[in-house]
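DATA SHEET
Item: assembly model
Revision: 1
Owner: S.N.
Input lines:
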Amino acid sequence: MTTSALRYQPLGINALKERFFSLVAPDLPNEWEVEEAMEELTDADPALVDEILSQVPAIWPVSNSLCYNYLGQALHALSCFPAAELGGWVNETLDRYEKGGLQAAQRFMTNVEQEFVCRLRGIAGLRFDEVRGRLLPYIRGLSGRELDLAPAARACTDGDTIFLPHKISMARDGEQNFLLYKFTASFQWAFLEQGTFFPDSPLLPETGEEAAGQLALALFFDSLAQPELAADLYLQLESIRARAFLGRELPGLVRETVDLLPDPLCRQETGRVARLLIALQCCCLTGEPDGVGLPGVEDSDLRHLLQPEATAAHSLALCRRLYTRLCGQVGEYHSPEPLFFQGTMRLDLVAAARSRRRQELGERFVDALTTALLTLPPSSGGPEEKKRPEGAGAAGTEVPDVALILDGDGKGGEEAEQSAFLRVDNEQVVMDEELEHLGRQVIDEFGFLPPRFVSSAAGRAGRAMAAGDVGASVGEQPLVAPVTYDEWDHRRGGFRKSWCIMTEKEIPVTRSTFITATLARYRGQIIRLRNQFEMMRTTERFLRRQRDGDDIDLDALVESLADSRAGLPPSDRLFVRLARDERDIAALFLVDMSNSTQGWVGTAIKEALVLICEAMEKVGDRYGIYGFSGMRRLRCETFHIKHLEEPYGETVRQRIGSIAPQEYTRMAPAIRHMTARFADVDARIRLLVILSDGKPEDYDDYKGEYAIEDTRHALLEARSAGIHPFCITIDHHAHEYMAHMYGTANSIFIDDVRKLPARMPEIYRVLTS
Amino acid sequence: MAGREIRLDAHRITEEPYYLPLGDEIRIAEVSHRCGIPLLLKGPTGCGKTRFMQYLAWRLDRPLITVSCHDDLSTSDLVGRYLIRAGEAVWMDGPLTLAVRAGAICYLDEVVEARKDTTVVIHPLADDRRELPIEKRGELLGAPPEFMLAVSYNPGYQSVLKDLKPSTRQRFVALNFDYPDPEREAEIVEREGGIAPEMARQLVRLAGMTRSLKDSGLAEGASTRLLIQAGKLVARGIPVRRACHVAVTQALSDDPELLAAIDEMVSSLF
Ligand SMILES: Nc1ncnc2c1ncn2[C@@H]1O[C@H](COP(=O)(O)OP(=O)(O)OP(=O)(O)O)[C@@H](O)[C@H]1O
Ligand SMILES: [Mg+2]
């Protein structure tokens, strides 16, 4: 029986005829004409037949021939659009009939796609880019991880990204189409959640480290004579499982969506296997496995897939059984059209994503380990101690002997804390949390810790040491031990942990007439600034419990009366005074010392610093000044010019005079360093003023969007640490990236360097009053 | 004196508050109480810190005096002051003094919100001296063994400026609270919200989803308290999606995209 795979009992031609006659009564149409017209419907789902017949009373009175035509076309039409649209389609058909006669109406009916569905979509279709913003946080919340969404011809997922159709237009309106998008995304998530691509099954071949970059599942399918058939069967079975999973997890979604999904039964597939796959699709839609009638498979086996405890291995076993029964029966196999939300199974993409993930994880681990080795305290036998002997030449690179010791599961248990060590040249150092975490991730992913990771990190650390790439350059003493900062990688939406090594250094002081010249040149301006800033000392504020003042402090008075009645000496601080002090502001100035500031810009910056210092002395705010530059992530530098509490004197002036362009503009680590410096400063307002001449850029790949996003993120971090950053950029014109990087309210650009010295104190004044 | 008794009685917890233990916190707290060590409760908002203190107070059979700290809270507000009553100066104990005298539990909620100079008055009380100097009265009040000091703070959303000073912090035994695991959280929501187990489980799922939105810009995910509130609305006939929208979605964010995403989670789950 061809209908063995169907879930329903077809009506049969006699019952159909009877229904028809009753609909057109009292007319008595020719019996064989009716029979011929209804032939298409004899095998159809009675529910669909109902829908189709319900339109007959509207068509028959208009034209009998049109009605017979309609009966022949309706089933095909319903495979193109949801049943709810049938009324609209019939109305259009009648319209065409009235205007262009039977032929026009027939043309309209046969070209469902061009004549009707296209227009339907044109009105109601929803594009991927319209839904991404809303779906992305949804899917991330759902999955609890940073899944991405991207458009593709067909829905699928590689485990990192869920691909969704460019456009969905099956449903009538935007909301419903959105729902279909959401359902599709959720369905793909279900595949990931239930481990569709990684069944834990004895049927799968052993793959070791899977050097070929193939999934065990793919190898299994490829080992069969008809891989597509097996894969399709597996996908259908897993879809049934996914549908049941969604029914449990997201009942609201499933309830709302089922009615919008197209009925695959409308499709005219010939061939037993294709029909069987469609029957499986139906089962996926309805969640009702009874009567699917799979060869060699009991309904109860299929039903088991609906249970929460069913696994991908069950599907695979079932797939295997079905496949063995079916593979001989099809000559050349063609996959039937998948349901749009199940899309295709792209094991190649899954494998590629896994390789990518592994490689990235490996790199991150190696980076973290390299940094860890480079920042080891000297006492622990780190490479620091083994400075190559004087004059040993570049060949003196020495690779430290490194081993990683990771025991326990890293979760509970007190001993677990003790079980992550780094052993460098036979000395054990406790690993930082991040490195330990990465190490455990590596073991999770690879099953072991590939020794090449450790050796490559040790090698890199050794080379960097030998090349003097780290920390202070020769002859300059770092002020404090180098610290590491994370760097924001916007592509990954995460931090590269301990990525930059920051050294704080002293500026070598050179003698020059710069300061005296500047003071002389701006003499008038400085006097005006000092007056202005003196005025700023004042902020208005009521001081309570004062000895004298403008008004009586009632609270204090009552309390002192009470105190005196109680025999205590009453307080004489009974007044409120409007006071103008208590600015309680701490400011750090961070200035760009990259080599692009050579020349005018650098001079203007230095002059501006002198002016601001002169002014700051009057206002009394605490302030510090640091310069920044550096080259590559392992040698980020800030230069101390004036610490927060340090008095502004001759030495500070000399340091300002000695500011000289250095290397590149990796601004973010410097910002992070300032944030750290601010951490233990207690002030009402903590202001970070950054002076730079343009885009952040470093010698390595640190540029463009990456650098902008990292800088932006560093500023966000500062802000969330309660610091107000403000950026002054010296450039010929404002660039779009600036507003994005700094935030419009927190930045200003100055197009003429000569204006900077005057503008800078002005800006500070506005910012703090 | 009689007045004080009445005031204290109001702080006595006579009926066992519902508290579902999540670990060994009760035992730790009891032992700390016995040793006279103060407690520091850390944890996100609405995760059960206050409820835990109520339960502990009931268990130890001590009155619980709670002070919500704010940046205008002065030392007198905690310790006490003289008032004039009918021409007489009358000393009025502040909540902290009251608690010390009565051997009660004094719970300073959101202690980081208090000014640093205010926080310092608890120092002698929080170390092994266990005494409270009342300067105005020239009195040094020793705490009875039953007295316990507990403070709470939420490490999540405060600025660095508001971190606890190490000298304050290092006087306490610190208990870290977090949202319970899904099963127990569902149990709590079911009970406190008065709703069916399945509904509670779905609410907890919703919370889990919102909590993983941190990287997408949500400051804090839905707390147990929000779930209970949503549950209560549902139990009283508000349609579940509407209840979640007003009690969870809107309470969490103002960002249109996040609001839409959370509502999508709601409509998927219910
Ligand atoms: N372990 C628990 N047992 C019983 N109820 C709990 C538990 N955890 C949380 N709750 C419920 O959550 C609600 C909120 O908890 P609570 O008010 O104690 O939060 P909190 O941690 O004090 O929050 P906040 O920091 O905002 O003050 C309580 O009213 C209680 O119903
Ligand atoms: Mg509370």
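QC remark: Confidence is low (pLDDT under 50) at residues 379-397, 409-418, 471-479 of chain A.
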